[in-house]
């Protein structure tokens, strides 16, 4: 099985930068406490209902990591590919040395911070916010001195106007490049402590189309995003939508959810004696022969089924429709797995897959039946 091999110093810096400069985006949290600060203070685990339903682009995390380590020895800095694999948790981590550090998935549990990846390895993560001026007084003095020694930092506040995307050559970070002031095309926006930086509620910002715009003004852009300096009027909003070919707009509560494919989006709740989960399964066949949902004793939920949407052509009432857009999940078999917060009794599970495309399940906690 492939794995990421990190030195002790590399893992230490990943753990501290990701844990200190990023926090769960909680409702009413102002300022937000970083993941490491919450862990050090022994705060209770938050639930899905506590989260603010936002998203952050992994480019922001990448930019923060390389900016903080711009003066560090290159041997302590991981390349872009490893950094993104670490953030997405796609490959297990192995470490040289005796020290142990929390992984990114430990700081931000995937069940509460859904990851989505795009073709360039970047993507978005739900309910994480950037902390520009993190508290560090909870760190052990030796860890604090070690961090200062590697980074050369005395003040941990980040000047966000200095954050720009790092450049890579052959997948190697150019960490010693002088950081220039941000421009209108760098894709970042100034933010106060605990506010969103390139963090757009309910929107996936995948490829960096800004570089595509600069490279070629005559070619079509694969994907993009339009930023408005102020809230448009209804007439301006209508004109923007009508100027697109096959585009669409969402407002109100729909704008706070996920745009694009929504298959597999998950909400998890917890009561005193049970867990509840809801999974979005639009366009999935509900026939028993094609669909199954199994719950294991350790809390693992495995859903298997077949989607019937996303075709290039659709036949209805003796007519054949050529689809102008294909945003729904493509047809074919799929498997979704996730883990509930704790062990359950598989014999005490009840699930309902309704016509609205939402699978809802309730599983009783195993401890209730322990002797």
From TrEMBL:
GO cellular component: nucleus
InterPro entries tied to this protein: A-crystallin/Hsp20_dom, HSP20-like_chaperone, IDM2/3-like
Highest taxon listed in the record's lineage: Eukaryota
Domain named SHSP: residues: 253-371
Family: Belongs to the small heat shock protein (HSP20) family.
Descriptive protein name: SHSP domain-containing protein
Organism of provenance: Salvia splendens (Scarlet sage)
């Amino acid at each position: 099985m492939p794995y990421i091999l990190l030195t002790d110093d590399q893992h230490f810096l990943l753990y501290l930068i990701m844990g200190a400069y990023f926090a769960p985006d909680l409702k009413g949290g102002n300022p937000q406490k970083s993941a490491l600060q919450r862990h050090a203070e022994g705060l209770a685990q938050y639930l899905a209902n506590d989260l603010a339903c936002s998203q952050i682009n992994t480019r922001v995390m990448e930019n923060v990591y390389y900016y903080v380590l711009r003066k560090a020895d290159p041997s302590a800095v991981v390349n872009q590919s490893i950094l993104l694999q670490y953030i997405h948790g796609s490959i297990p981590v192995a470490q040289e040395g005796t020290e142990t550090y929390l992984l990114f998935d430990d700081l931000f549990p995937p069940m509460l911070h859904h990851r989505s990846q795009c073709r360039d390895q970047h993507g978005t993560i739900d309910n994480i916010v950037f902390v520009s001026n993190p508290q560090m007084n909870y760190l052990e003095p030796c860890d604090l001195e070690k961090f200062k020694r590697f980074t050369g930092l005395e003040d941990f506040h980040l000047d966000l106007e200095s954050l720009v995307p790092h450049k890579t050559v052959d997948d190697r970070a150019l960490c010693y490049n002088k950081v220039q002031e941000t421009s209108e095309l760098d894709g970042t926006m100034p933010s106060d402590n605990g506010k969103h930086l390139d963090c757009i509620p309910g929107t996936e910002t995948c490829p960096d189309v800004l570089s595509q715009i600069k490279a070629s003004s005559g070619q079509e852009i694969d994907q993009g995003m339009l930023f408005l300096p102020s809230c448009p009027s209804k007439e301006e909003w209508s004109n923007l939508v009508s100027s697109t070919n096959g585009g669409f707009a969402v407002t109100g509560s729909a704008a706070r959810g996920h745009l694009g494919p929504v298959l597999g989006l998950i909400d998890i709740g917890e009561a005193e004696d049970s867990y509840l989960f809801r999974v979005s399964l639009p366009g999935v066949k509900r026939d028993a022969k094609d669909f199954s949902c199994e719950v294991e004793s350790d809390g693992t939920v495995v859903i298997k089924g077949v989607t019937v949407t996303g075709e290039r052509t659709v036949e209805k009432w003796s007519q054949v429709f050529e689809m102008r857009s294909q945003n729904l999940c493509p047809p074919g078999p799929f498997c979704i797995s996730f883990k509930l917060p704790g062990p359950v009794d598989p014999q005490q599970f009840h699930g309902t897959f309704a016509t609205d495309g939402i699978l809802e399940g309730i599983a009783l906690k195993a401890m209730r039946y322990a002797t």
